[in-house]
Automatic annotation (TrEMBL):
Top-level taxon of the source organism: Bacteria
Keyword terms, alphabetized: Cell membrane, Membrane, Transmembrane, Transmembrane helix
Keyword Zinc attributed: no
Species assigned in the record: Paenibacillus solisilvae
Chief localization: membrane
Protein name: Chromate efflux transporter
Listed transmembrane segments: 89-108, 120-140, 152-179, 212-231, 279-301, 313-337, 349-370, 376-393
Family note: Belongs to the chromate ion transporter (CHR) (TC 2.A.51) family.
Membrane-topology descriptor: Multi-pass membrane protein
Subcellular location(s) of the protein: Cell membrane
Segments forming a coiled coil: none
Amino acid sequence: MADEKVQPLPLKNRYAEVFTTALKLGLTSFGGPTAHIGYFRDEYVQRKNWLSERSFADLVALCQFLPGPASSQLGMAIGIKRAGLPGAFLAWVGFTLPSAALMLLFALTSSGTGFSEAGWLQGLKLAAVAVVALAVWSMGKTLAQGPLRATIAIGSAIAASVIPGIGGQLVPLLAGAIAGLCWLQPTDMHTADFEPEQNVLLSQEKPMSYRLAWSALAVFAMLLLILPILARNCASPLWSIADSAYRAGSLVFGGGHAVLPLLEQEVVGTGSGKLTADIFTAGYGAVQAMPGPLFTFAAYIGGSMAEGITGVLYGLIALAAIFLPSFLLLAGALPFWQTLKRNRQAQAALMGINAAIVGILLAALYHPIWYDAVRSPRHFVIVLLVFLLLHVWRRQPWQSVAAAAAAGWLIL
């Protein structure tokens, strides 16, 4: 990370930079939402220097509180900071495009072949273990310094491990905020943590307005009310697909795995426009092997409901509908979040929340990431080697991911 201040690029160049960076992450970020946070931190904080460790953690906290795909929302938020609202859209397109295209192609051309035990896929899961471990280690050194914040982090890891469902995320975050208000002060942090980020390439020209925020929230609520009416009263299955996907993206916390039961309830059955359980399960197995967000499973669902161009259209509608709530909620929440952070009490609460984020990541490192991936000494060896590549040799994540996939293909 360079010490000298680097002049930000012109806005038109930042659009291309946001898209290409997100596309690289969309091609290489395996392992699910928690692993994506590790990949994002390495790219946006360590390599690109677009925002500080503290600002990154603040955005992670905001996205954990919002329903929808947290990692995609995090990418959108970073895109907004880098290049305004167009940056959010470009970040989403880049991160989503590879997985969405593959899932749509799978829906249109495959009857569903399982490959969940392939050696290369196991290698990708092991790479995600190393990426998340490095993120927990590095963020912990910055955000969980001192006995109080370290205690919040460990307590949050314990709570996240024993409380089921979305409560395992929200309870530690709320407890961390309360602990921060009660026992922490902004002066407890390193002085640089509240100084202007002179060497960070944050470059949004103008902050988002409250008028735009209220408009986004109004559109979000209006669609949540109108789409079910259109689905019931219009003969085209397009509206039913849009309604199911939009509600899934609006009301589900916990990322892609949490949304699957709701989607299954909506689309699996014996009636017209329904999928069989086998087709649904085949798509679920395929999306596990994809980089990027698990919410691209919606493209597979839409594409499986018809053939040819109609299937492509349905897939794109489902994809847009499931991610649209995330964009609207983020645009609605971010201005209020930025204002709230300037309050000293809010700063103290955020200190506790950021320490809790470290604990939640630590718990996720064990389950599901480590628990599902590391099953033998050979698996552990691959994790150690990938960690060595990332932390000591400073290889880029895509290089480490490729090495892990090759190792898995050769020896697992």
